[in-house]
Write a structure and sequence with these properties.
Strand content: 25-35%
CATH topology: Rossmann fold
Radius of gyration: 17 Å
CATH class: Alpha Beta
Number of domains: 1
Shape: globular
Order of helices and strands: HEEHEHEHEHEHEEE
Number of helices: 6
Helix content: 25-40%
Mean pLDDT: 88
Structural class: alpha/beta
CATH architecture: 3-Layer(aba) Sandwich
Oligomer: single chain
Strand order of the largest sheet: 5-4-3-6-7-9-8
Amino acid sequence: MRNKTTKNKAISKSTDGFIRVISGQFRGRKLPVKDVQGLRPTTDRIKETVFNWLMQDTRDANVLDCFAGSGGLGFEALSRFASNATFLELDPSAAKQLEQNISTLKLINAQVKHINSLSFLEQKNINTPFDLVFVDPPFRKNLAQTSCNLLEINNWLNEDALIYVEVESDLNTFNIPTNWLLIKEKKSGQVFSRLYRRQTN
């Protein structure tokens, strides 16, 4: 009897969940998500807002999902016919789950890099720059600021790239590169969602 109780407790402690693709070719699909410290999947409500902003810009885009976690933003972009997506994720269990979800969706235009996002962005990009970048890091670690600076400095962005950033709503010290134009912004609870367009002129 004791063993059964222990087993049931172990099962009930699992907080793994799922994300849902809200539109596009994979609409309604539920993808498993690992319970990882600091992982904060973007809510359906925020995703709907973001992809309404990006309605004309997702198709055929070369996408980078930094601090991918659940991959909710990257998978949503792929569902809406982005040409390809690169997911950056440091946590091994989250990275493995991303790979499994890519396999589940039978995607051949997505890849996972098991790497610290900042370490990746610190490299000089010598390949095709990205058209659309998601920066949704764990809060209160100054990761968004550093990521945005590295994206600009190290040639990761196309000339008119779009960059979506989530930061905590009480962050007062966030500064974007001078050639980024804020085109959309919304506060949802403790989260600020912002969309920027890079300008080269």
